[in-house]
Amino acid sequence: MAEYSRIAKGSFTSTGAAQTVLLPFVPNVVEMWNYSAANSAPAANAVVSAYWDSAMGQGFALETGVYQTYATTPTVLALVADTVVANGISTFSAGQLLSFGQQIQIASISKASPAVVTTASNHGYANGDVVIMTGLYQSPTTGMPQISNIPFTVTVTGATTFTIHWNTNQSNYTALSGSPTGAFVKKVLYPYLYLPADLTIQTIVTGTTTTIATTTAHNLVVGQEVAFRIPSVWGTTQLNSLPNNSTPGAPLYGYVTSVTDYLTFVVNINSTGFTAFNTNQTVASVPGLDYPQVVPVGDVNTGGFPYSGGNLYPSPVITPYTGISYSSINGPAIQGAFFNNTRQGFVIGAGAGTNLASSVLVGANGNQIYWRAMLTDLSSP
Amino acid sequence: MSITTTGNLGPMILQSLAPAMLYVPTPTMNYITITDKISMPVNGGTTCRFMRPRALQPPTIQLGNSGIDPPAQVPQRDIIDAQMAFFGTGVIINEQVILQDQEGVLAWVSERLAVSMRQAEDLILRDYIVSAASEINAGGGSNGDNPTNLGLSDFSLVSTTLDTNNAYKFMSGIEGSLAFGSGPIRSSYFMLSSTELQTDFDSLVGSGVINVWNYPNNTSALPSEWGSVFNLRILTSSEAPVARAASANGQDVYYNTVCGKQAVTHINQDGYSMNLIYRDPYYSGMLAQNATLAVKFAQAQAITQDTAIRNLLCTRLSNLGV
Q1: Do A135 and B86 touch (CB under 8 A)?
Q2: CA separation for the pair B124, A317 (Å, rounded)
């Protein structure tokens, strides 16, 4: 037993997509076993176990899986060793904002709602990832630079395609095609380190209450107090917290009364008759174009996050996408409080084996995965 | 005749440690400077709560002569919560290092740990502000990007925005003097910028931008202060946030935090703002081989006056030659 090493174990049910495991350390060894794969009749390409050592490099893994030697009956299966060289096991240390993944060339963006982005090579994104795009010009005066540097949550529709929550099917947007020079997309590696956060607005539905949709997961709760910053070209400036003509200097705020989904929430501001929200900005207006934002400024809650069958006093929950949520690693807080979501740990990816080309490291949806992670005292070399 | 040289009688000890340690390049830490600071009491739960009363409507309508009182107003307040978080790091030093090294390893490692803790405080505040404060894209520059490089109108716009929001300024003005090249300095908010933007500031000197060395006197200037423009005093640091290759044209985007008093509050846990912990090797394993040195601290932060803070985003006029 080494004195300063760290060892952790755990389990999760695979969704078939990359699984993040939070730890109080960054491991240099990770092992995993797929109990479901081992506990059923051998099936071709099932990954039974895997091993990763930091010396292999990020995204690699050594896996043991089922190989089908003949495609026709009689089926002959064998347990073989294989390597994963992309989307295997990796570690992360999410401590600072404004960290980005590699730039990927954009092949095209459609005029549609939601807009479909096609990349020139596999993007490797998963649902809930956040990206920014730059260089969105089809010509010096056409394209979609209006949405440059806006963070968008992606919905993955294929290896080279995903959609973003924006209506580009408007007169001032021109579809991008032919891999325009300088048109890139890149992943924001750690978009939710400090929550709640400033958000970019994609739509506003006015009425007796006001419904807001954002471009990335809002992570707001009922009772959250919000302020609006809407430049005049976007229309609905009456929501802005200042100026207040009846009580000079007193900012006008709204409260979140319901959360529709991870992108949409309702605020108790009667916006009947307010100017319609307009995202049809011109390319010519892009230099200096400000974006419409909603800013969390407080809350009226007094209780902690609700018990949901896990910890008795749960930590704040982050929901980056429908059906995906996780807790921060700190303790319980008042709902709506500003909290720190910096974290570290490892990711088991959905990468395929070099020979078991149809295998998925993290297993199929519903598979029971056990893992063990270590940070060793002694590492040679 | 034989001459004894270092070739046949060399010094027995070839090295001598220079008496002074070399300095460690360390960014200036500006974010902690602009915060209000409060302490959260022990046994006070996980979350620090702030309360700000809302202004009451001024009674500008006369009572008239009916003798009937006007309806009462209902006082309101806004509540801001921030959850405390704990941080720490340390080193494990084998006793042989302590016994054999000549340079006082425990002393300089202690200093390094303390500096890393202060840097962590600042970086956490920096990233929190990037995350939570609303943004304005510079549009007054000439480079055609979004955001553009900083133009004079951007400085004016952001300070006007804070003035219109009734933010409190940090610094009173400095009256002009007859010193050649100097100019009066207005009462000011702070703008926290990147050192990489100093070439752009330099290009605006003479157009309303005044370098700190052209203040009538710089007794009130802070160590990291670059200069002043309109109602802003600019503090620069190499650790200021930059989103690399993120603008419309793929250039670096700089976050210039412009804020007034009480815009951001730094909250420490009472009695836990900094702990430097040394454990003698006695407390390690059977053979008591390893000492440990560590720091830990607790910190929360909140934007406590959202109307008094903006991140002014910009690109640069030209790329750095580095």
Answers
A1: no
A2: 20
Instruction: Supply the DSSP symbol for A320.
Output: E
Q: Are B17 and B102 in contact (CB under 8 A)?
A: yes
SS3 A63: strand
Determine the length of chain B: 322
Residues B238 and A185: their CA atoms lie apart, in Å, by: 26
**pLDDT class for B277, splitting at 50, 70, 90?**
very high
What's the Rg (C-alpha) of chain A? Answer: 24
Q: How far apart are CA B134 and CA B119, in angstroms?
A: 24
Q: What CA–CA distance (Å, rounded) separates B194 from B255?
A: 8
What's the rounded Cα separation, in Å, for the pair A327 and A314?
A: 8
* CATH match for A104-188 among 3.40.140.10, 1.10.10.60, 3.40.50.10890, 2.40.30.180: 2.40.30.180
Count other C-beta atoms under 10 Å from residue A19's C-beta.
20
β-partners of residue A194 are A340
Q: Which residue matches tokens 């340690």?
A: B21
Distance CA A323, CA A260 (A): 13
Say if residue B184 is preceded by a cis peptide, omega within 30 of 0: no
Sheet strands (E) in A95-220: 104-109, 115-119, 130-134, 137-139, 142-143, 152-158, 161-164, 184-188, 194-195, 199-205, 210-214
Shortest alpha-carbon distance between residue B19 and chain A (Å): 34
Domain boundaries, chain A: 6-95+345-375, 104-188, 194-299
Beta strand spans in B178-217 (E): 189-194, 209-211
How many other CB atoms are found less than 10 A from the CB of residue A308? 10
Q: What is the pTM of this model?
A: 0.93
The pLDDT of residue A69 is above 80: no
CA-CA distances (angstroms) from residue B302 to A339, B42, B252? 9, 19, 27
Tell me how close the Cα of B56 comes to any Cα of chain A, in angstroms: 7
Q: What number does CATH give the domain A194-299? A: 2.40.30.180
| Nearest CA-CA partner of A78 in A52, A48, A50, A33 | A48
Instruction: Return the SS3 of A313.
Output: coil
Q: Looking at the predicted complex, does its ipTM rise above 0.95?
A: no
What is the DSSP track for B128-143? HHHHHS-EEE--SSSS
Q: Who among B55, B80, B250 is closest to A184 (CB)?
A: B250
- Tell me the backbone φ, ψ of residue B110, rounded to 5 degrees: -60, -45
Strand-pairing partners, residue A259, are A265
B133 with A198: Cβ contact below 8 A: yes
Predicted confidence (pLDDT) at residue B305 exceeds the cutoff of 70: yes
Is the pLDDT confidence value at B188 over 90?
yes
> Is residue A73 pLDDT above 80, yes or no?
no
* CB A150 within 8 Å of CB B135: no
Same fold, A104-188 and A194-299: yes
Tokens matching residue B176: 């002009």
Residue B105: phi and psi, rounded to 5, are -60, -35
Question: Contacts of residue B124 in chain A, CB cutoff 8 Å?
Answer: 340, 342
Q: How confident is the model at residue A1 (pLDDT cuts 50, 70, 90)?
A: very low
Of A334, A351, A329, nearest to A296 (Cα)? Answer: A334
Residues of chain A with C-beta less than 8 angstroms from the C-beta of B56: 247
Helix (H, G, I), strand (E, B) or coil at A219: coil
Contact between B132 and A229 using a beta-carbon 8 Å cutoff: no
Which residues are within 8 A (CB) of A355 and not within 5 positions of it... i.e. 6 or more apart? A67, A80, A82
Question: Tell me, what DSSP letter sits at residue A366?
Answer: T
